[in-house]
Structure prediction request, 120 residues.
Amino acid sequence: MGSMNRFWKGVFFGAIAGGAVALLDRETRQAVVENCKKTSSDVSYYIKNPNEMVEQVRETTQKIKTTFEQVSEDVSFIAEKVDELREVTPAVAGIVKETKEAFTHDEVNIEDDEENVPLP
Prediction:
């Protein structure tokens, strides 16, 4: 158990050290500061306007629900078409077979007729 605690402590301190090294870069520092400012201004805005956040969550939830319903309809439609194809395929195979047999039979008859033609 002790080695596991040391591992997580090492991960934690490694992350802090990595973050500190990354902050030595000026652009990274500026990006972190900008993100912190934006996040804190967003948080303070939603604290002052909780209804706004509730409305956004409601809209997002509705969009997700609508997308899920559309995907479900699409999946149902595709499944229905696959079932129709399964039903149609044997019928089509039968028609193709009958057509092939008819053409093969006609070719045999044509060859027979050619043999019976008297030579001049």
User: Anything to note?
Assistant: The chain is about 90% helix and 0% strand. The longest helix spans residues 50-115. The mean pLDDT is 78. The CA atoms of residues 2 and 9 lie 11 Å apart.
